[in-house]
Design goal:
With 350 residues, the protein is an alpha/beta fold. It is built from 7 helices and 17 strands.
Length: 350
């Protein structure tokens, strides 16, 4: 398919800058890919669509406060530093992005905090904006991480045009988040409250977890019209034996397997094996999914409404069918659904 096929008009006012007060009170569009029916609900109505023995697979990655502001030595210039991942714990090396990048060269030192007690030295250039930082910190690694993250802010997506607020540290985190490593929240999971999870459990719906440490690749612009030429950034993932056993048992008993979010959908597709089953997987995935694609494990999908031209929209279209999903997006704009990580949800069934 072509990039231009994923263009649609999205008014700025429909991009949600804050979530609904209660996680499960967002709106939810239900799209039936067998019948083509599109209906409108509240997210907590998801209870009506799953039964005893069905499985919901969540991404249990935990977003860390990756956005920092420091000052360059001598000039005092304000520098934005976006932490991507830790490269070496012993040497306190981090892969980061810096802005403005033109001011940051190898050998420069950056100072963080009001007292400038956290210091980092640039030791390598990785990309045009990428740098490797070595933090000059004397003390145990656990304390270093606590001090570093205390200086950071929630890394909101670029389409949210505001500074992070203290509330975002809670709002931009799934309640089941456990394994640190993401800089992008698995947005579909943000809609699940503790009460809703309990009600699903009472109904007999099983929970299973995959770990995908979502990176910034989801927001990188696609610069080719022919989608077969686009290359996704790699993300670290883990599909455990417990997850595989739960999902495969559901498939064998003809129960439904619902992927909660595109990161989960992609992870399950990465770990697919023969006969509509999953296998364990511990490594990296750069799988790029766009129509047409045959999903053999996931039967349903919970997702948010995504930006034009985004890889997430392409994956949703692959799952729900291009024509039906684009019609659903047309209706979403017409009906005033809220887009983005803090926006409303879509459930694709059938």
């Amino acid at each position: 398919m072509k990039l231009s096929q994923f263009k649609f008009h999205l008014p700025d006012e429909l991009i949600a800058s804050h979530p609904t007060p209660d996680r499960d009170d967002a709106r939810m569009m239900v799209v039936n890919r067998k019948t083509g029916e599109i209906s409108h609900h509240i997210f907590k109505d998801i209870l009506d669509y799953f039964n005893d023995g069905d499985v919901m697979v969540f991404n249990d990655t935990l977003v860390f406060p990756a956005l920092l502001y420091g000052n360059k030595e001598k000039t005092g210039a304000r520098i934005e530093v976006f932490l991507l991942r830790e490269l070496n714990a012993d040497n306190k090396l981090w892969d980061v992005l810096v802005e403005p990048a033109r001011k940051i060269r190898i050998g420069n030192k950056l100072y963080f905090g009001e007292d400038e007690s956290m210091v980092a030295e640039v030791i390598d250039n990785t990309t045009s904006r990428g740098r490797t930082l070595r933090f000059l910190y004397d003390g145990p690694h656990d304390q270093f991480k606590r001090d570093l993250f205390a200086l950071g802010m929630t890394p909101l997506p670029p389409y949210i045009d505001r500074e992070p607020e203290p509330r975002d540290a809670q709002d931009y985190q799934c309640i089941f988040a456990e394994k640190e490593g993401a800089v992008v929240a698995p947005a579909a999971g943000l809609h699940f409250s503790r009460g809703l999870l309990t009600r699903l459990q009472i109904k007999g719906v099983k929970k299973a977890f995959v770990t995908v440490h979502n990176g910034l690749g989801a927001f990188r612009e696609i610069d080719v019209e022919d989608l077969t030429k686009h290359r996704m950034d790699s993300e670290q993932m883990l599909a455990s034996q417990q997850l595989v056993d739960t999902v495969n048992a559901a498939r064998d008993s003809e129960h439904r397997v619902c992927a909660v979010g595109t990161s989960v959908l992609r992870a399950i597709a990465t770990a697919e094996s023969m006969g509509g089953h999953m296998k364990t997987y511990d490594g990296w995935t750069n799988k790029f999914i766009f129509p047409p694609y045959d999903f053999t494990v996931s039967t349903d999908l919970v997702t948010n409404f995504h930006m034009p031209y985004s890889t997430m929209l392409m994956m949703v279209a692959a799952f729900g069918g291009y024509d039906l999903v684009m019609e659903a997006y047309h209706q979403a704009v017409k009906e005033g659904y809220r887009f983005g990580c803090y926006g409303d949800a879509m459930l694709i069934i059938g």
